[in-house]
Amino acid sequence: MKFLPINNLIEINRVVSSAILSWQLSKRVYRLSVEQLSYQLEDLEDHVFIGGYLGEQLLGVIIWAKYPSQLPDGTRVRYLHGLYVSQEHQGCLAGSRLLEYSVSETIRSCIHALSLKAWRRSEAFFLRNYFVPLIIGEHGDDQLYPKLLVRYLVENKK
Q: What is the rounded CA–CA span in Å between residue 78 and residue 19?
């Protein structure tokens, strides 16, 4: 699998739409979800889009915020905005490979963590890939939807 920057919104949104098909939503909820999760021209200004390709075929897209932020403990963090794999390529490690590519790029950028908001359907995937729930404040609410997860990339962070 090769990883390349992508800015073709038609191709990006095709992958997003295909990925959402696997969520087993009603037709109406699917239509509304695709509309809400599709990327627009202005998103190219604030986000990095990386495509995962097998030959010339785009299998998936990972999107992260262009600029890092900080966790409450001061750790520099890169926010993952989305990880989408076409329905026909899910379960074939494309998502894991895209995620590991983002880990490598994050470490190379001297950023020490990745964070994201995981929907219930994808939470297990991220937990298997070394993300842990991030509890902010005194009271953690396990019912929060989506759940904020973080993956620390340096050894002194757990």
A: 23
Domains of the chain (ranges; CATH) run: 2-152 (3.40.630.30)
> Could you list the pLDDT tens digit for every one of the 158 residues in the chain?
999 999 999 999 999 999 998 888 899 988 888 888 999 999 999 999 999 999 999 999 999 999 999 998 899 999 999 999 999 999 999 999 999 999 999 999 999 999 999 887 889 999 999 999 987 655 455 544 468 899 999 865 44
Token pair 């298997």 is found at 128
Q: Are 14 and 60 in contact (CB under 8 A)?
A: no
Residues contacting 38, CB < 8 A, separation 6+: 13, 16, 17
